[in-house]
Design brief:
The complex is a heterodimer. Chain A is an alpha+beta fold. Chain A is built from 16 helices and 20 strands. Chain A is 32% helix and 28% strand. In chain A, strand 9 and strand 10 form a beta hairpin. In chain A, helix 6 packs across helix 11, helix 12 packs antiparallel against helix 13 and helix 13 runs parallel beside helix 15. Chain B is an alpha/beta fold. Chain B is 23% helix and 23% strand. Chain B has six helices and eleven strands. In chain B, the strands form two sheets. Chain B has a nine-stranded mixed β-sheet with strand order 5-4-6-7-3-8-9-10-11, sandwiched between helices. A two-stranded antiparallel sheet of chain B has the order 1-2. The chains are: A alpha+beta, B alpha/beta. Chains A and B meet through helix 15, strand 13, strand 15, strand 17 and strand 18 of A and helix 4, strand 5, helix 5 and strand 8 of B.
Chain lengths: 506, 270
């Protein structure tokens, strides 16, 4: 994938300029340098290692973006995962801009290696990605050829053709370490053919015998003499347990018994691994092929089979067995480390003694009924705007101290409601106001408390009322003749002054 | 007179025990002798369900008006009582509409960090969730906001409280659906039933003074009803979470006639 960082940026949604010069910039030893340069920029004379100032001088409309090697690596890994689904089970990212695909035995599915390469190029092209593809009998040869081939091209090396194909390529394509490459160039060894012609014993004496990265090792990896170990990403261990039944299950009791066995097995595995799960899904496969699933989530990671079963049993009646259930799969997700002491607290027996565990159990039961998103704890948020001064956090999140604010209402309307208020002078508290049809005469008022909109939040361009309401508010605490207390505010500038009701004091 | 129940064997059937009017979990003093004398435990009984309503339920004043406004009154009274419960365990607050503003709880002496908010889709779910939480007994108290609170639901919650000694509060709010509501005045199985109404405060130079409410104890099992005007003490006078500090509520005046009318309301002609 030549210039992968640039290609990745271009693919980002909303990244507009398709044909403008683009470069990424990074900080190398305290100096800002260009890292990757797009072909458009290169055509105008830019190159990697230039300073951004110089680059801007050469090309004023250059788009400079901070290099993000982590995102580049993640993108490459994602592409490798995609390849494992469509082309071969063995695909690995090769940072900074390559991918390894082991297509042994896979080419037949595409009508030969040529078919596979063509399909891969087409699919990548569909993503808007340009790739140079090379198929060879050895990893080193494929690496070198992929980088030697012209833009957008592909090359298929017949078996045993490595030596001939690589002979004319520069030694730089052997993935040598910088020192070794420099030394070889000074010795006048320019091509791989030159290198291969030298006596092996002399090379070993001069460059050492590093088994994986030495000159000899790289040469053998390219010419097919040595296998290169590639770190193929392995699929994670599936945390699931399955049971299949010769005789379909029809009753809820038998389903519960089967779930019990699965839960005990899964929890035993979790215990051996020292982990607990925060989410569990039981999938029931019916004889007619339909799948039904029930899911439970827990506030803390658990691995107590009894507790898991109790949560699942509450939802078991939603599973319609139809003509029978022939297989059940119980999977754990959101795994976290869980040491033995914690597990005891959460275990069935310890649950009554430990208040923390009991609280987590209550939260699980409620979340199981109402949905995990319906439980939360409010946390203060540093904002002056009342409706933004709170933030929901999970129910077991650690609590933080609350700030001391001027009097605040106990009930807050989700959006301030406009009221018709009468004030003696423009800058005073209201004498009376009408809200939802009822007139309230004010017998006492305190304020104003001025709350300014946070200019650093962009005001979304919306209806005039909204931006006006967001700008500046003068809040008053008012009490009407019955003793009911309100939080009202005046918003807007002189001629467009408006009143709103925002909350209720006890 | 000796209690006839005490002479029964200890293996008392569960249904009989559940009728025992004395909860075994004690109570929390209200902090004012005038109020505590009306309550059987010389304070609010723990391990029981208490109901807090607002007078406007009966008046059916303005529809939307009552719903939002009265919510603050009942919530504040409940928060004052919750702040006096022993321990610092969390409090579950279950409602269908979440307009509670935790920043306002500090005025009632309740630490907002103790609150775990739960949103239910329907009122029936609020009561069901309350029952689950009360039965588990992990929270210091469980509070639910509902419009209708029938006898059966009250009985179920009362039974759920018994096992772990959990304390429950039911806030009566105007229902958001237009279903017919039974009046607050109708009796149910709650241990105490309170009814609140706003009361004009002592003004200071046209500024509102500390909030005052008319607090009516409609029903107290083992106690007697009463009515008072209570005042919410100023927030800086109390340290949050300190139960021995001045109680948040102070009785200003006892009302001889529980049915004393609040000052005449002014309503617009149109």
């Amino acid at each position: 994938m030549p210039l992968w960082p640039i290609q990745r940026l271009r693919r980002r949604p909303g990244f507009a300029p398709p044909d403008r010069a683009l470069a990424t910039v990074e900080t190398r030893q305290g100096q800002r340098r260009l890292a990757a340069v797009s072909p458009e920029a290169a055509a105008r004379g830019l190159a990697a290692d230039q300073t951004p100032a110089m680059a801007r001088a050469i090309c004023p409309d250059l788009v400079l973006i901070e290099a993000d090697p982590d995102a580049d690596a993640a993108g490459l890994a994602a592409l490798a995962r995609w390849c494992t689904r469509h082309f071969t089970p063995l695909a690995a990212p090769d940072p900074p801009e390559g991918l390894w695909l082991d297509i042994t035995g896979c080419a037949g599915l595409f009508g030969g290696e040529a078919g596979l390469v063509e399909a891969l190029a087409r699919r990548l092209g569909g993503f808007g990605l340009q790739a140079r593809l090379a198929v060879a009998g050895s990893s080193g040869a494929a690496w070198a050829l992929a980088r030697a081939v012209r833009q957008d091209g592909s090359i298929l090396l017949p078996p045993g053709g490595e030596r001939a194909a690589l002979a004319m390529l520069p030694v730089g394509l052997l993935r040598l370490e910088a020192r070794a490459g420099f030394l070889l160039r000074r010795l006048g060894v320019k091509t791989i053919g030159d290198l291969a012609a030298l006596p092996r014993a002399d090379l070993a004496a001069r460059f050492g015998t590093d088994r994986s990265r030495g000159v000899l090792a790289r040469l053998d990896q390219a010419l097919g003499g040595a296998e290169e170990p590639i770190a193929w990403p392995m699929p994670a261990t599936p945390w699931e347990e399955r049971l299949a039944f010769a005789e379909p299950l029809l009753t809820t009791d038998s389903l519960a018994a089967a779930l019990d066995r699965l839960a005990v097995r899964l929890c035993a595995r979790l215990e051996r691994a020292g982990r607990g799960g925060g989410a569990f899904i039981a999938t029931f496969t019916r004889v007619d092929g339909e799948e039904k699933a029930i899911a439970v989530t827990t506030a803390r990671p658990v691995r107590a089979a009894a507790w898991l079963l109790r949560l699942l049993a509450e939802k078991l009646e939603r599973v319609d067995p139809g003509f029978g259930i022939e297989a059940i799969c119980l999977a754990a997700g959101r795994l976290e480390p869980l040491d033995a002491a914690q597990a005891v607290l959460l275990d069935g027996a310890g649950m009554d003694e430990a208040p923390g565990g009991k609280l987590a159990a209550t939260i699980d039961l409620l979340a199981n009924r109402l949905g995990p998103a319906s439980l939360w704890r409010a946390q203060p948020w540093p904002s002056h705007v009342p409706e933004r001064a709170l933030r929901p956090v999970p129910p077991l999140a650690p609590s933080v101290p609350w700030p001391h604010l001027p009097p605040r209402p106990l009930r807050l309307l989700a959006r301030p409601e406009p009221i018709e208020a009468t004030a003696p002078v423009p800058d005073a508290a209201p004498l009376q106001f009408r809200w939802r049809g009822a007139l309230h005469r004010v017998r006492a008022a305190s304020g104003p408390e001025r709350i300014g909109a946070e200019w650093w939040h962009h005001a979304p361009p919306g209806p005039a009322e909204r931006s006006e309401r967001d700008r500046l508010r003068d809040y008053y605490r008012v009490e009407d003749t019955e003793g009911a207390r309100f939080w009202v505010f005046r918003a807007g500038l002189e001629e467009r002054r408006r009143w709103f009701l925002h909350g209720f004091f006890p | 007179m000796p209690d006839p129940l005490s002479s029964l064997p200890s293996g008392l059937p569960a249904w009989r025990r559940s009728l025992d009017p004395r909860p075994p979990h004690g109570g929390v003093a209200f902090g004012d002798a005038a109020v505590d004398a009306h309550l059987p435990e010389h304070g609010l009984g723990l391990g029981q369900v208490h109901e807090i309503g607002v007078a406007e339920f009966d008046d059916k004043a303005g529809f939307g008006d009552g719903q939002a406004r009265t919510g603050a009154l009942a919530a504040a009274f409940a928060a004052c009582l919750l702040a006096r419960l022993p321990g610092t365990r969390p409090i579950l607050w279950i409602a269908t509409v979440c307009d509670l503003y935790p920043h306002g709880l500090a005025a009632c002496g309740l630490d907002p960090a103790r609150l775990i908010l739960v949103r239910a889709r329907r009122e029936a779910e609020v009561l069901a969730a309350m029952e689950v939480a009360l039965r588990e007994g992990a929270a210091a108290a469980v509070l639910g906001e509902v419009g209708a609170f029938q006898r059966l639901a009250a009985r179920r919650l009362q039974l759920a409280c018994r096992r772990q000694g959990s304390t429950g509060f039911v806030l009566r709010r105007w229902p958001h659906a237009a279903a017919p509501v039974r009046r607050v005045a109708e009796g149910n199985a709650a241990a105490t039933r309170w009814r609140l109404a706003p009361w004009p405060s002592e003004r200071r130079d046209r500024e509102p003074g500390p909030a005052r409410w008319r607090v009516e104890l409609l029903q107290a099992r083992g106690g007697r009803p009463g009515a008072w005007v209570m005042e919410l003490a100023e927030a800086p006078a109390r340290a949050m979470g300190d139960r021995d500090a001045t109680p948040a509520l102070r009785v200003v005046a006892a009302l001889a006639d529980p049915a004393a009318a609040p000052p005449s309301r002014l309503r617009a002609a149109g």
